[in-house]
Write a structure and sequence with these properties.
Layout lengths: L10 H10 L5 H18 L1 H11 L4 H11 L2 H8 L7 H5 L6 H9 L9 H12 L18 H11 L3 E2 L5 E2 L4 H30 L1 H15 L6 H17 L1
Antiparallel strand pairs: 1-2
């Protein structure tokens, strides 16, 4: 269905068309979105609000999301061609993406008709992120993509991506991923060790200086990140100067 951007109708006529399109398939989702965008352009903001509030079979928030979707012909086009999911809540996840990013995600195969909402949300976040922090690291596991999905996103976008198993994925093979997870765990173990050693120093500087190296080698494997040993050496040196 093709809907003109602006075609003068009454509010009730727009409501009838939108409600009739509410909806049976992906084409109907696209119809609803385009109709909401056209109605908003035709009626103006205040009358469109009344349309959403008084005349539609769904609420104003959802109508506004459909309007935003209808204003993105690139998303609508991919959805009609079955290159994006048919669920409207998943399609909403792609609205923040610019056209080039969306095209890249579709052409690379990262987004398909089978993409889950969680993967769609994480993909959008990864393509928009300018941070080195893992995507989704601040979210609960039940909001995150599966490990397979997270690794696919990481491989295409070059971003680290948190998954529902509470691990961070980097787009690597399973063996490489295991090695990364091991080094990540060792890194945080090192930080915990340094914090604990600092606490021991506050309690008994003599015990700290006399026993820290033995404690260190017992608690941490030799494969710990090399820099961590430098941190410990610097800490010990600083403490020795204070004695």
């Amino acid at each position: 269905m093709t809907v003109a951007l602006v075609k003068t109708r009454t509010r009730k006529q727009w409501a009838k068309d939108i409600n009739l399109a509410w909806f049976k398939s992906v084409d109907d989702v696209c119809d609803v979105a385009e109709l909401c965008a056209s109605a908003a352009a035709d009626l103006g903001a205040s009358t469109f609000v009344k349309l959403c509030t008084d005349d539609l079979q769904f609420n104003r928030t959802l109508a506004n999301r459909f309007r935003q979707l209808g204003e993105r012909p690139d998303i609508i086009g991919h959805a009609r061609q079955r290159r994006l999911p048919k669920g409207y809540t998943t399609l909403f996840e792609f609205i923040p993406l610019d056209q080039d990013s969306l095209t890249y995600a579709v052409e690379s195969g990262l987004l398909t008709a089978e993409t889950s909402k969680r993967k769609g949300r994480a993909t959008t976040a990864a393509l928009q992120s300018n941070s080195d922090q893992p995507i989704g690291s601040d979210l609960s596991p039940d909001s995150l993509p599966s490990p397979k999905e997270a690794n696919e996103i990481a491989k295409v976008t070059g971003k680290m991506v948190a998954a529902s198993d509470n691990k961070i994925y980097t787009g690597t093979t399973p063996d490489e991923q295991d090695q990364y997870n091991e080094r990540r765990d060792q890194f945080y173990q090192t930080l915990d060790a340094i914090n604990l050693l600092a606490d021991l120093k506050a309690v008994d500087p003599g015990f700290f200086l006399d026993n820290s190296e033995e404690w260190w080698t017992e608690k941490l494997s030799t494969s710990v990140i090399d820099d961590s040993r430098e941190w410990l050496a610097s800490l010990l040196e600083a403490l020795e100067r204070r004695r």
